Every structure is written in C-alpha cells, then in structure tokens.
Amino acid sequence: MARALTVSRGIRRNGELGLFLSRNIVPLSKPNDDDVVVGWGQKANTIKAERFAKKHSLPYWRIEDGFLAYLSHPARGAQRLSLIIDKTGIYYDAHRPSDLENMLNDGLWMTPELKERAVSLRERIVAAGLSKYNHAPNKLSDNRLAEIGTGPFVLVVDQTAGDVSIEAGHANSDSFQEMLSAALDENPDATILVKVHPDVLIGKKAGHFSDLDHPRCKLVADPCSPYALFDMASKVYVVTSQMGFEALLAGKDVTCFGMPFYAGWGLSDDRLVLDRRVAKPCLDTLVAAALIRYPKYRDPFLGEDSDVEHVIALLENEKALARPVGKTAWFVGFSLWKRSFIAPFIEGGVDQIRYIGPRRAVTLKPAKDDCVVLWGRRFPEVAARLKGHCSVWHMEDGFIRSVGLGSDLQRPSSLVLDSRGIYYDASDESDLEHFLANHEFSDHDREQGAKLLTSIRESKVSKYNVGSGADIDFKEAAGRRIILVTGQVEGDASLRYGAGGIDNNNSLLQAVRKANPDAFIVYKPHPDVISGNRLGVVSEEVMATAVDYLLEGTSITDCFKTIDALHVMTSQAGFEALQYGVKVTTWGCPFYAGWGLTTDMQSAPRRGRALTLEEMVYSALIIYPRYAAWPAERPATAASIVAALAHYNKAAKPGRRNVRGGLYSVGRKARNLLEAFIR
User: pTM for the full model?
Assistant: First the structure.
C-alpha cells in the first residue's frame, strides 16, 4: 500500500485518516517514488514536513476537517465524516491559492446535475440545521429566548483566540472589534447577538468577546445550532468563521471582515479585497465546490467511502429527534450491569455521567442545564418532581438489541432515549409516537427505510437473534389457516402500560382460539420465559384447549414464511412480522398499532394516520434508537448493527445461535452479584 509520510504523531495515531488517504501513514523516512507527505492544515509542525517534501520532490498534501465534519464534537469522541485533502494550499489560507479557490475561479466543471444536487443539499442542510459540529440542539430553550427578548437582531460571530484561519484570512484580533463596531453603527435599532464558538463553550479555548459589556449586545453562550440564530437575525457579521458560509446557505446577508473561502466572490459584503478571486460563481456553484467536490466522505460506521448525500442522511437521522444534552447526566437507580454499557449511547451530548441510587434521587437537585435519565417507567416520583426543572429522559432497550437475551446479561446494541414518555406506554405520547404522527416523510426517508428493510429480510435479523435457524414446516396443519401467537414476559412493562383487557399469555391464547376456532394455532413462548429467567408459563389447560403446536428454540424470523398471521398483545414480534409481510393482529396497543399496518383489537385515539411500512421502519429503527458497536464501545447506526448481526447469523451454525452467554456477555454467574449493587 502507498505511504503518507508525516511529522505529526496525531496524524499517525489516527487510523481513520489512513482510510481517508488510502495510504499507510508513517514517520518521515527515506521516501519511495509513490510516497506523499501530509500535514494538518497550517500547523507549525507542517513547516518541517513541507520542506522535506520539497527537498525530495514529493507531493505535499494539507489535510483538514470537512465542512460537515462530525456527528457530535471531536472533543467528545465523535466520528469523523469528512476530510479535506488539498494538494495546492488549504481553503482558509487566503495568502495562497487552494484547490477550492482554483476550482471556483475555473467554474467550467459545473453541470446541471451538480446544480440540482447543490440545491437539494442546501435545502436539506438548512432544514436539519447541519454544521461542522452537530452535537447542539436546533433551538434555544424557551427560557433563554424569553431572556433575550424580541428583535430585531443582528448576529456577530466570535472565533477562538489564535484560530489560524484569522491570520490566514488577512485578519487579526482588531478585526473583531471593528466588526462589532460596524454591526452597532450599521444597525442602530437592532440588538446584537454575539455567538461564542463551541470550543469556548466546552472550556478548550478563549474567545474575543468573553468580557463584553454593551447595552445593545447580548452574549449567546448557549449550545445551539447556528441555524437557531440565523432564524432570529436579519444580518450576520463574521471575520473568517464557517458560520458565514452556513449563513449564506440560509439565505442571510453576510458581512466579512476577513477573507474566508466564501468571500471575494460577490456573494457577501466584503470589507477586504483579494485580487486573485476573479470569478463570480453563484451560491449553488460555491455549494457544489465546497461540499460535493472538495472534501472526501466516509461512513465511519460501515467503514465505506461515501458521498455528501449519505453523510447528510446520517446527520439528519441523528438530529431528527432531540437527544440528551447538559453538563451532567444523572442516571437514577442503574445497576452496575447497566452502567457498564451506557456511555456510547449518551456520547456527544453531555460532559459527564453520574450514577445515583433511588434514595439519593429523592433529594437530587440537578442544575437546569443537567438532565436526568430513568430506566423505562421506574421512579415516576422522580420524573414528576423534576420535569419542568430540567430535562427528564426515559431509557429502554431498542428493537434490534443483541445476540442473546437481556436477562442473560447481553449488552444491548440499541437503546432508546425518550423525552416525552416511552414507546410501550400507550397511555401517554412518546417521542416515537409524536414523530410518527407529525413528521413529513420524504422520498429519501422512505428509501432509507426500504434499504434497511431489505437488509433485515435478507439477514433475518431480529431483536435477540436467538433460535436454531432451522426450516419449519407445520405439516400437522393439514391445510388449516396457521396463526402464530407469541408469548410475552408477564409483568412486562409493555403489558402494564399497553395491554388493555388482555395482559397475560393464557388470556391471549384463549381469545385467539375463540376468534379463530378452526385455525391451527402455534404458540411460541418468549425466550426469557423458556430460559427460566422470567414469568409467563401457560397453564396445561390452555395449552390443551387453545394450542395445536408448541414452538421453542427456533428463530422467530424462520416462522414468518410458513404462517398466515401473527397475533400478539404488545410484543415486538408483531413489528418484526410486518417487516416480512405477515398479517398482524394486536390485542394491546404496541407502538406500531393504530397506523393502518395492523388489525387492532384495541383503539388508539391519538393515532390514525396511515403510514407505510418503510416509514415505520425508518422511524422506529433508524431515527428513534441509539446504537452502539461492541466490543469497540462506540456509537453506531442501524445499518452497521444489522450488517454486523447479519455476519454473525450467517456464520453461526444451526442450533448454536441460542447459546447462553453468547457475544459480549459477562456470564450468568456474575448476574446476581452485579444486580445486587444498586445504590
């Protein structure tokens, strides 16, 4: 494999950079003919690397984060989505040309297809509030908006002191005072909102306006997407910040007091002039150059080269629902076992995680910018006391969970975090239900749902991925209509909050038999009941009168192709059956009922909107949960988890998929010890 030589230890230690470069990264050494030398932007240590490249007549590449760079913030361990590889200069250094500047001066590469893509990208970026870092919410809190008051507003953008793009953009620290003075003079009736850089917010760097004291100026130190402020401002003032580019995307008038990459082309009000920039590209050409042609993109979860549309989809999915944010996330009553897998699911939004027991939670007084996380519907008194003071979240297993059972201490690959309720509680609206009822689904949303649906069908991935994987043929049915009934753990929270009149396996089987007296009824107990970990065994009388066939130790996905219908109370098996085209009847009110996809024996008054299966899959599997890859302990996506489980299912031998302990388990012997330590 070709090599990239560098003096930077940080570049050498970052394995994903080698993937972007398609080269092995090594220290400066005796070069080969096909080697290149790389350095990070305009850092001081690049001087030696650049001299080495010149001495040995090697290409020198400057690398830098792209303009849509991270799902979260790099200081919080976020995955890199894009990288710029510039073989001429670097985009923020106006002292010399760059690949991007040369591209914009040329412009002959622009095509109608690229223009169409650029228009679509601009619309999607603005609608989703996407930026370089994407950990912040898309709006300020209601309390903060009330404190700021009413407009008109003008936005002034601060940057970190010493940011290399300032000097490289023909500016200095005085430029920020000139900018602020101009904003005040040119907008005498406006309140000036001064936005602090995200790196200042998390304490990594200093800014230029931290001690600002002016009656018409208000410092905005809140974490929020730039677009939350663009919606409020009539004009945007910058020195060299990328927020100026994003403000152009949002259709704002932008005034530049430095020479960033987007200035000098006639798209902004520029207080400096750069004679090299002679072209007059339209905004769509700038977007096509800066976002389509200039950076290189990768899906960090699937480990594949990608394009900007795919990366935007990842970011849209991440930001479609609110996520926990705050200085501290307080997890109440979580056992040591649960604490072992929480971090990857909360990464990016909070600075620290604290665990406390239920006794201490009674007197817990979190700060307003903290958040509290509860498991499912546990500790309702804590939720009732704290809602309105800080954000309260409910956590639960997701719908593509693991290889093996949660009761066997298998770490989950997915969890859901819900700010309204929780998906299985039909008595109250959840974030999932709200999304299903109100989201305007695009063709792209449905395409993502369809693609994931195809992957699930091909790989036979399910929630627990247990069972033998054997083919099933109910010859005993002898032509009768085959109905599969799936049992549940009795006392399960989804039954308490969504079952209605039928809340146990005995009653379910009796009701199904009464409604279908001539059917061949197959009963599949819940894996946790079979394992002996939970309650829910059906009586001998009901087994004799309501069940024709008892099915154990078989993957539920292998049942779907041989049955005519599935009946459930609130089991997720109904959702999985829908994914395989099986007709489903619900006797309770699970999250997927009431949307026109199932026959429902219980009404759901808040629901009623007709959805497609692709829309349901997109919402419930791509948007609602958060995913983590084990043993890497890093965030993941639905597609990457399905791909990993598909690989496992394909490699597993028949009859071995339900081995207790399985992948990533701590072992059954440790269970009692771990669960005993709840503080």
Answer: 0.86
